[in-house]
């Protein structure tokens, strides 16, 4: 309906007090200014300037148009400045495994906000397999996920491993110390979702060479796992950092024999280098720094 050039001509008429003064200031012919504004009024179906014997003044619709156009011009100027001066801005679609939301994520985002205040983040918390697929489909820009589930062709930077433990609510279950695998299998177990690598690793650990099957429940929510273990639904396989972040649960780590030791979770920060090289590098740097604290 109108362009920036139309708005600039209207602004010049307002600023200099009339068509003739605007012509002298801008170097455009007065007839060209009058013709452009008249065509704009016809296209929009409004009166922009009210004319009288003393000159012209903005109509109510013209004032509204100018006010709104000032916002558009400011946005245009901001975008040009960011692009030409290398300012990092816009929306970053960030996928995060839930374990990371309680560990490095807050420090990472605080660092990024201080370095790149024009960035905005849309954060999705999901399982690593889902985030890996989202990276391939370009519905995420950067993701922190389990290293083993990163897609091929993705830029990958390992993060410090997250140690795992067996946890119990002492008021509901009593186990030998140290507990053997058979002691753990005798109780219901709450772990990661069944589609994930940590869930499969727990099953392999508990069922290898044993007749008694393990009852392993899966949940994509670590908060749910904590609540279920606290309420005595079962024992849980939980990252140490998560339990430390929720001291109100009063869970106790189960001392186990070496045979029942859980493998640490190996996370990595990932992005497609062809689509998101600049923001991927910035987020990776902040994540590595946050992981080192």
Describe the structure.
The protein is α/β, with parallel strands linked by helices. It has three domains: 4-84, Winged helix-like DNA-binding domain superfamily/Winged helix DNA-binding domain (Arc Repressor Mutant, subunit A, Orthogonal Bundle); 90-161 and 266-291, Periplasmic binding protein-like II (D-Maltodextrin-Binding Protein, domain 2); 164-260, Periplasmic binding protein-like II (D-Maltodextrin-Binding Protein, domain 2). It is 46% helix and 18% strand. It has twelve helices and twelve strands. It has helices at 4-16, 19-26, 30-44, 60-84, 98-101, 105-115, 128-136, 181-185, 197-207, 222-230, 240-245, 273-291; strands spanning 49-52, 55-58, 90-96, 119-125, 142-146, 155-158, 164-168, 189-191, 216-218, 235-239, 252-253, 267-271. Helix 1 crosses helix 2 (19-26) and helix 6 (105-115) packs across helix 12 (273-291). InterPro entries: LTTR, LysR_HTH_N, LysR_subst-bd, WH-like_DNA-bd_sf, WH_DNA-bd_sf.
Overview in brief:
The protein has 293 residues and is an alpha/beta fold. The protein is built from twelve helices and twelve strands.
Feature tags:
293 residues; alpha/beta; Arc Repressor Mutant, subunit A; D-Maltodextrin-Binding Protein, domain 2; 3 domains; five-stranded mixed beta sheet
